[in-house]
Amino acid sequence: MKKPLWLVAWLLVIEILVILLLVPGDWTDKAIEKESALVEASLGSESRYWIREQAESWYQSVMIDSGFYEGMYYTLIPTEEQRKNSRGMENMGTWWFVWAKGRMEALANVVYQFMTRTALFMTWAPYMLILLLPAIYDGMMTWRIKRTNFDYASPIIHRYGIRFTGYLVLGLGIAFFAPIALNPIIIPIVMMICCVLIGLTMGNLQKRV
């Protein structure tokens, strides 16, 4: 999994750079609104409200209360007092300040969108335990049965089960940063597939007698 991890890291870096450099600030705003409407249509208004409140609480703590956004703003954009004190250079770099402010807003929107998707993931997680625990139990029982007879424990299923589970989890992590509206059904589908793959993987552990 070393190469895929490096690949995912590079994909995340490229994705964030593209968002910061190319994606318009209002693009992510529209994606957030559209995705919120999809969540309400799928899970109801109460779930939508909880997800929004949870995401806003995290965003307030991470970006605002920590001083991160304010520090980033005053590092890249001078205050009115600083501009007045720069005699003869008050309007220098105005285009840069406008562009930098738009990029900061794009970054803030991506962080907020990531937090809304994390909250959505938490909404589905308890229900996924209902599938994960039986999958693990079934896999363990299958493995125990194979230890007592001549049933074949496939190393191929075991190896690729681990790999595909990892790919799905990493792919979902990349999707969490994507500045597009994701259908909320994608998250439980990926989680259910992972549960099934975990069960198959455990059922095909190599026999140890």
Describe, in short, the structure shown:
This protein is mainly alpha-helical.
Question: Please, could you describe this protein's structure?
Answer:
This protein has 209 residues and is mainly alpha-helical. The protein has one domain (2-203). The protein is 81% helix and 0% strand. The protein contains eight helices and no strands. It has helices at 2-21, 25-43, 45-65, 68-76, 80-85, 94-148, 155-176, 186-203. Helix 4 runs antiparallel to helix 6 (94-148). It starts with a helix and ends in a 6-residue tail after the last helix.
| Total beta strands | 0
Radius of gyration: 23 Å
Individual helix count: 8
Largest sheet: none
Strand content: under 5%
Order of helices and strands: HHHHHHHH
Distance separating the two termini: 28 Å
InterPro entries: DtrJ-like
Protein name: Putative type IV conjugative transfer system coupling factor
Keywords: Membrane, Transmembrane, Transmembrane helix
Pfam family, one: DtrJ-like
Topology:
Elements: H1 2-21, H2 25-43, H3 45-65, H4 68-76, H5 80-85, H6 94-148, H7 155-176, H8 186-203
Helix pairs in contact: 1-6, 1-7, 2-3, 2-6, 3-6, 4-6, 6-8, 7-8
Characteristics:
DtrJ-like; elongated; 0% strand; mainly alpha; 8 helices; 209 residues
